[in-house]
Design goal:
With 954 residues, this protein is an alpha/beta fold. The chain contains 41 helices and 23 strands. It has an 11-stranded parallel sheet with strand order 2-12-13-14-15-17-19-20-21-22-23. It has a 7-stranded mixed sheet with strand order 3-1-8-4-7-6-5. Strand 21, helix 40 and strand 22 form a beta-alpha-beta unit. Helix 4 packs across helix 8, helix 18 crosses helix 21 and helix 29 packs parallel to helix 31. The chain is globular and about 90 Å long.
Length: 954
């Protein structure tokens, strides 16, 4: 039976939610009548369950039943009296639980007096009203259509997050015109339709695969910062954390790594169309710019063409540039690597001009690593991140998401769903036992292929990449239609393959990713030479391939492309071999867009052809014979080809490639390391140990990519290398190891991290973090609970908890003898965090977190840095801290400092904006004042003259 508190909450929610939410629905949608959404909003379901399960009862459990009833009735009447909300106040009231509570309290004074509540009933009233407000606002924010409009309203009112306010301080007076707001709503609908959802390979078997929800099917990828830095992100940063403080990012990822899907997910986050939406993106306007679709690089007003071409004529003049100027634009540039090499310099200049013209906008750009150097846009403020391969947990999460989507397909019998559940369990077990398959599943594309083939082949899987693609093509071109009882096409699987190969090869040879449908049909007609079914109309053949093959798709403006570049390259490689164009293959091998074509061509070739290609690669082509770096690139490419060639004739060719590779060891860059690792496990014994200090990070990357017991043993040799890049690679290897605990104990326990910060996400690694005996500084991002592993760390000195919405109990940290400094940033659980276990730390940082400030009363804190809603209007809410020496107030001016005299022990004060000298004279021992973002140099100099005994810095 529910406790009285939970029962009261449920009673109030049931009677109030409908009026609150439907009223807001009308405000946001201007009278739209979406009955399905209305029903969803007025059935809080899981939210109410979560609220009820987290209620803290404590001393309130002793309240008499009649007191409970009086308090519940008073809360209901108070909220009812505050409704309905007027259109001009609805969005403002729903910004935060506090703003909703203040609105209710302001209109219910008579009700509270008339209720005659006792002291205990008043406590119930206060607690219950706060919980109701939290529940209502969280439910409202969880709905995409409300979240986006609320975020835009926050922007307009200057009440957005601190970063947004700081970034747009000069734009507060800028108001969106009515026409701009209306078009923004229309544009958001078009973008959500164009980019919303993702396709999981093989889940749906038919012409139009169903799009899966990002919330249920997207496995959020991790990123790691590229370059030499003391921020160790190799274990993987959540995307939200990486981009929150980095407005310009270059995202690098290999074939099938999920780069385009990642940008689509970012766009949906900006629109509030996912349950994972964060405050950092809500209210931003996403512009998805796939470079492959532009014949000339677009001007800003053309950014909406790929996603909203049907409403382009409705766009108010200058609408896109207005969003760019005010900093609300999120520009998502996809596929720099899909431009031919000569156009990448043009793209770089275009991006430089765009960023210089609109520096307040946010930018995310994707590319393959080999296409551009990691510092490609560094001089215009871009930070480079690698999109990391799926970790062991990521692969398991993907397999679960894929099979969940498959079980949700319409028309499945109960037995079929049970069988899919068995498939899922068996595949997870198989991947755990077979490292070769686990490495294949490191990208979402290949993981999806494995899931589909495991199901289709009765839980049996191919062993290498070539076999994987062959089986996938057989599944797509023949098996699915056979299994579904559809009439087979009038041309055979072999004929379909030849058509696709020849079409793919024409694209690769002409350095194209898509062509107009008319041109595609023309090329298909030319490709029909030698086919038994050569008299088939090319347009009909194209339509058949588009509808049933699952390898081609028609995109904007009637242009045709392969569903993924990987399939294009695989099929083109087969045609290179069938057509005998091996000379052209070697001539183009130095171009990065031909890399995968060369590797797969060697896989397709006969043994003697393989030897010939490998020897020609070692000799170099006309473009590399006078270029040492170019020759090295071809030698590494030859080495990568070996892993796809079980049989080579003569066998001496293999030995020659291996000998040439030895001259390239150790690797001189991460790109070389990635290429070297493709050669397989024989490289492990050729790599030097930590004595090769300059190349140590690249060696660790090579070993981690190869994997296997021998590679993990070699990695352990590098634990004593005191270099940030090496340590970051050791952390990155932690993601790939099949046994995270064993690796933590045997490798990371011996690493001396110094004062470098290590970013860690996910319970699957944090549960073993106590084994990192020399780790002093940790940042944990995301929902981590409980905190016991962190409290058990023997050397932890500084801990940062970011974006944690489930943690409320800090007591596991109280037992740490080494912990001196704690940062809580955007930690917003339901209810407030009790800080009393941390009251005797040396230093505490609180930013945008739900905390009980009064629980610090009398603590021994020496430094406090804060930005909290409780102190928005002044310092009265801060507790007494007799040992406080340093206070940093991160609120933006104008901000009252009244009450500073309560902490006469302060020697250092940090503020934003130039404070009043009278306020500062209340601090008798003040020695140092730090002023961030002073309004003017003149005011700062005036303050220095008024306080000659205080050192004032900026």
């Amino acid at each position: 039976m529910a406790d009285p508190f939970s029962a009261g909450l449920l009673m109030v929610l049931e009677t109030v939610l409908e009026r609150v939410l439907l009223g807001l629905f009308d405000v946001v949608h201007k009278g739209a009548k979406d009955k399905k959404r209305q029903r969803e909003l007025t059935r809080p379901g899981p939210l109410v369950e979560r609220v009820s399960s987290e209620l803290a009862r404590g001393e309130l459990s002793a309240v008499e039943q009649h007191e409970w009833r009086a308090a519940v009735d008073a809360v209901r009447e108070s909220i009812e009296a505050s409704l309905p909300l007027r259109p001009e106040e609805a969005l403002r009231v729903m910004l935060t639980p506090e703003s909703l509570r203040a609105h209710v309290m302001s209109g219910s004074e008579k009700i509270r007096r008339a209720a005659g509540l006792s002291e205990q009933a008043t406590a119930v009233y206060d607690a219950l009203l706060l919980r109701v407000c939290v529940a209502v606002v969280e439910l409202v924010w969880s709905q995409p259509e409300y979240a986006r409009r609320l975020a835009v309203e926050m922007f307009r009112m200057g009440r957005a997050t601190a970063d947004a306010v700081a970034r747009l301080a000069d734009q507060r007076q800028l108001a969106l015109t009515a026409s701009h707001r209306d078009f923004e709503d229309r544009y958001a609908e078009q973008v959500a339709h164009a980019l919303g959802g993702l396709e999981l390979f093989g889940v749906s078997r038919g012409r139009a695969p169903r799009r899966q929800s990002f919330d249920t099917s997207y496995v959020s990828l991790a990123v790691a910062r590229v370059g030499d830095t003391d921020e160790l992100t190799g274990a993987g940063l959540p995307v939200a954390a990486a981009l929150a403080d980095t407005p310009r990012v270059l995202i690098r990822g290999g074939a099938g790594a999920g780069k385009t899907t990642f940008l689509r997910w970012l766009a949906m986050n900006a629109l509030g169309e996912t349950r994972t939406s964060g405050d950092e993106w809500l209210g931003l306007v996403p512009f998805f710019v796939p470079l492959r679709q532009y014949t000339t690089l677009p001007k800003p007003e053309e950014f909406i063409s790929p996603t909203a071409s049907m409403i382009e004529e409705e766009k108010p003049s200058g609408w896109v540039t207005a969003r760019l100027r005010e900093g609300r634009a999120l520009v998502l540039v996809d596929g720099v690597d899909e431009l031919v090499w000569e156009r990448r310099a043009e793209a770089r200049l275009w991006l430089e001009k765009l960023v210089n013209a609109y520096p307040e906008a946010r930018y995310a750009i994707t590319t393959r690593p080999a296409a551009v150097p990691e510092d490609w846009l560094e001089d215009v403020g871009f930070s480079a991140f690698d999109l990391l391969p799926l970790s062991d947990k990521g692969v398991r999460d993907f397999v679960e998401a894929w099979h969940t989507a498959a079980r949700d397909e319409p028309g499945l019998t109960r037995d079929a769903r049970v069988w899919l559940t068995e498939c899922e369990a068996r595949l997870v077990a198989t991947l755990a036992k077979r490292p070769d398959l686990r490495r294949l599943a490191s990208s979402p594309l290949l993981a999806g292929l494995l899931c589909a083939l495991h199901q289709d082949r009765n839980m049996h899987l191919p062993r290498d990449r070539r076999s994987l693609y062959e089986a996938a093509l057989d599944l797509l071109l023949v098996r699915w239609d056979e299994d579904r009882g559809l009439a087979l096409p009038s041309f055979s699987k072999e004929e379909q393959l030849v058509l696709l190969q020849r079409f793919a090869y024409s694209l690769v040879r002409n350095r194209e990713l898509m062509v107009p449908r008319e041109e595609a049909v023309h090329r298909l007609g030319n490709a029909m030479r030698g086919l038994r079914s050569h008299d088939i109309d090319p347009d009909e053949a194209m339509q058949r391939l588009l509808e049933r093959a699952g390898l081609l798709r028609e995109v904007a403006s009637e242009r045709v492309q392969f569903v993924h570049r990987t399939f294009r390259d695989y099929l083109a490689a087969k045609e290179v071999v069938d057509a005998g164009d091996l000379n052209l293959l070697v001539d183009r091998a130095h171009l990065d867009e031909w890399h995968d074509v060369v590797v797969m061509a060697v896989a397709h070739a006969r043994p003697r052809e393989r030897a010939r290609v490998l020897m020609d690669l070692l000799a170099g082509n006309d473009d590399t014979r006078k270029d040492e770096r170019g020759r090295d690139k071809l030698r590494l490419l030859a080495l990568a080809c070996l892993d796809q060639a079980d049989v080579i004739e003569p066998e001496t060719a293999r030995a020659q490639v291996t000998a040439a590779a030895a001259a390239l060891i150790p690797p001189k860059s991460f790109a070389h390391a990635d290429a070297l690792s493709e050669a397989g496990s024989f490289v492990v014994d050729l790599l030097p140990g930590p004595e090769a200090s300059e190349e140590a990070a690249y060696i660790v990357r090579t070993l981690a990519n190869i994997g296997g017991e021998a590679a993990w043993e070699r990695i352990a040799e590098f634990v004593a290398v005191d270099h940030a890049m090496v340590i970051d690679e050791l952390l990155r290897a932690w993601r790939n190891t099949p046994d995270a605990e064993k690796y933590a104990k045997s490798v990371l326990s011996k690493v001396d991290f110094g004062d470098r910060r290590v970013d860690v996400r996910g319970w699957h690694r944090i549960q073993f973090i106590m084994h990192l005996e020399k780790l002093r500084y940790v940042r944990c991002i995301g929902n981590i609970n409980p905190l016991d592993p962190l409290g058990a760390m023997p050397s932890l000195h500084r801990l940062e908890l970011w974006q944690n919405e489930v943690m409320r109990d800090l007591s596991p940290l109280a037992g740490s003898r080494s912990l001196k400094e704690l940062h809580l940033s955007r930690c917003r659980p339901l209810g407030r965090i009790d800080l009393s276990p941390m009251r005797d730390l040396d230093e505490l940082h609180l930013h945008f977190s739900r905390v009980e400030l009064e629980s610090l009363e009398g603590g021994a804190l020496r430094r406090l840095q804060i930005r909290d809603s409780a102190t928005d209007e002044g310092l009265e809410a801060l507790p007494g801290l007799p040992a406080l020496r340093e206070l940093a107030i991160d609120h933006r001016p104008p901000y009252p400092l009244a009450g500073l005299e309560r902490w006469p022990t302060i020697t250092t004060l940090e503020v934003f904006g130039v404070p009043s000298a009278d306020d500062l004279r209340l601090l008798p021992v003040l020695e140092h004042l730090v002023v961030h973002q002073p309004e003017s140099v003149a005011r700062l100099e005036e303050l220095r003259g008024q306080l000659p005994g205080v050192r004032i810095t900026t």
